[in-house]
Input
Amino acid sequence: MIKANLILYHKKPIKTTDFVFFPITDYKQIPKLLSDISFKFQQWEFPSRSKQEPIIESLQKEFPNINWEEISLKFDQLGEIAILKLDPSCTSLSVRQRVGELILSRSLRLKAVLNKNDIIKGAERLYPIEYLAGEKIWQTWHQEYGVFIFVDLERAYFNPRLAEEHHRVAMSVKPGETILDLFTGVGSFALHCAKGSPCTIVAIDINPYAIDALQRSIKKNKLQGDIHSIIGDSRKILRLQDYFDRIIINLPQKSVKYLPYAAKLLKKGGIITFYQFILKFENPEEKIRKLISKNLAHINSYKELYIKVGRDVSPSRVQVNVDLQLF
Ligand SMILES: C[S@@+](CC[C@H](N)C(=O)[O-])C[C@H]1O[C@@H](n2cnc3c(N)ncnc32)[C@H](O)[C@@H]1O
Output
């Protein structure tokens, strides 16, 4: 009946002791279709499937004094955790927790709803996390393009909005490459690259919890490449020259400042992929070119392979994604 498009989906079937009655669109087709099954026709007033009320409507009813149209209820889903970014100035904790409960009640896959504060702190780039609803968990397995990433929201930076970039970079890696990920966090770039190619990656982060998470992910994924993880300050650790085929710099507040250092570590013809925040009003493409030429003034020549003005990181700033080949 489903294949023949005979079921009325907006109505609920009715169960009696001996029968299940399905709401159907055209009873004349049934005898032919169900010739080897016993059935009967009966008229019912089938109940409608109750559509869940949208969260915003429930909230408007419960808290009519709050202007919900102005509050973003968008959230990122990391494995079993939903992470919101609610404006703390506009709602009380109990209201925020009610938002969390409603989100939780709408999804079978979610176990916890958390709220993150906008203010990122320290070299580790952590933001304070507030518990809203469900289980009190801050750790989860997140999947991006089939790569498992262990996420520890309380203690190590992770942003699911970088998934496409992780994938794009990994897709351009050739077998046998030696790669350096200067600010690896929980190791997303490294894991994507090692999953896709037999390459060697050195992944550095100053935050031991981030490297701990990376170690767990290395064990969980079936990787083709090798990842060597290091805890420490990536500017101070390496005493190499002309060594890497590719270097990834993802510390977007100041990635450009690391360009001269990366240039020294890179082989001739190697690629630097970096991410930099730029103010929108500055004409991001023009601005990034200026910053590159200023920081690579000592390099003979380089070629822009890719410049993309990417996601908005705040109302005033965007992230610019760049691949450069140095000669
Ligand atoms: C934007 S996050 C990296 C995100 C990661 N690349 C990803 O795609 O998921 C920046 C990381 O740089 C690390 N970090 C900051 N300063 C550092 C330094 N001097 N040396 C090494 N790591 C550093 C932080 O601990 C943080 O994990």
In short: Residues 1-51 form one domain. The two ends are 65 Å apart (CA to CA). The mean pLDDT is 92.
